[in-house]
Design a protein that fits this description.
The strands form two sheets. The protein has a six-stranded parallel sheet, with helices on both faces. It starts with 15 loop residues before the first helix and ends with a helix. Helix content is 50%, strand content 13%. By secondary structure, it is α/β, with parallel strands linked by helices. The chain contains eleven helices and eight strands.
Length: 300
């Protein structure tokens, strides 16, 4: 029988090292099993909503610049103003971030252009400009995210520094709930050339979302927000589900630090770089401006 002793398992007390090895193996095995993410957005959660920045998040470029192109086509302003709009748009496309000085200049230009015009007139023109310049610049990926919230029975709002009239047109054409935007002063339906308060930018966006959540009875911890810009970190930080979409470099770093989700829908472009040489951008501006001048001359 002694010869069969090797078949009998030996009883040994586990050493500290073997216990550690066993626990580490079990932990590694547990981590190797992917955890199923909870369904999001949650179907039928009427205390949740989604808030989307517009420029470079829902649409390539800045809505205000595209609107300016449409107004130029309708002879609201001169060629020199178009050149400034074109340069600002090219800078925005190349840099991929909002520059306060550029944005302020664009807003001032837009306010001076619309002064004296009726709100109803600009709303009607906005519908045409959406078809001409904006519809083809909507990011399909971001549009799908918005649709997922709508399909779940949730409200979806645009939140933008663009004029609220433009934002409402875009929201309606995309089938969204509505829009929060910068409000230009009007008296008896005519623009005065002034703003009501300040542009809906940075912290002002967060305050607008907070106020809307109170009015709508929303639970912000169950809401989602989407933006490309570090300027919108206050808005993104308000909600339980923040997303960085086509993020600039500062937002990308912050999103990684905070473990926020990221999505990048820019074709042929990495994180915060455009992938287009600066010279190409300047050339595009020069070509576009030259074409506009030629068109202007033909019309005269």
């Amino acid at each position: 029988m002694a010869a069969l002793g090797w078949l009998t398992p030996r009883r040994r007390s586990a050493t500290a090292r073997s216990v550690l090895a066993g626990e580490a193996s079990a932990e590694a095995a547990r981590k190797s099993v992917p955890e199923e993410e909870p369904e999001f957005p949650v179907l039928g959660d009427d205390r949740a909503a989604a808030f989307f920045d517009l420029d470079n998040t829902v649409m390539q470029g800045a809505a205000l610049f595209h609107f300016g192109r449409g107004l130029y086509k309708r002879k609201f302003f001169e060629t020199r103003d178009l050149a400034r709009f074109a340069w600002q748009q090219a800078w925005f496309r190349l840099a991929g971030v909002e520059d306060p000085e550029h944005m302020q200049d664009a807003r001032d230009s837009a306010l001076s252009i619309v002064q004296g015009h009726r709100v109803s007139e600009l709303m009607s023109i906005g519908e045409e400009i959406y078809d001409e310049y904006m519809a083809e610049r909507i990011w399909p990926g971001t549009r799908a995210l918005a649709q997922a919230h709508l399909d779940a029975g949730q409200k979806v709002w645009l939140v933008t520094a663009a004029p609220v009239e433009i934002a409402r047109v875009i929201a309606r054409r995309l089938g969204l709930t509505g829009a929060l935007g910068t409000v230009a002063e009007s008296v008896d339906g005519v623009y005065t050339g002034k703003l009501v308060g300040e542009p809906l930018h940075g912290p002002a966006k967060a305050e607008a979302v907070r106020a809307l959540a109170v009015a709508e009875g929303l639970d912000l911890s169950r809401c989602a927000a989407y933006s490309d810009s570090h300027n919108d970190i206050p808005m993104l930080s308000l909600v339980g589900h923040p997303y960085a979409i086509n993020p600039d470099s500062k937002l990308r770093r912050h999103a990684r630090d905070m473990d926020w989700r990221l999505r990048d829908y820019r074709t042929g472009r990495k994180a915060a770089k455009v992938g287009i040489p600066a010279a190409a951008g300047v050339g595009a501006v020069a070509g576009g401006t030259a074409a506009a001048i030629a068109l202007h001359r033909r019309r005269r």
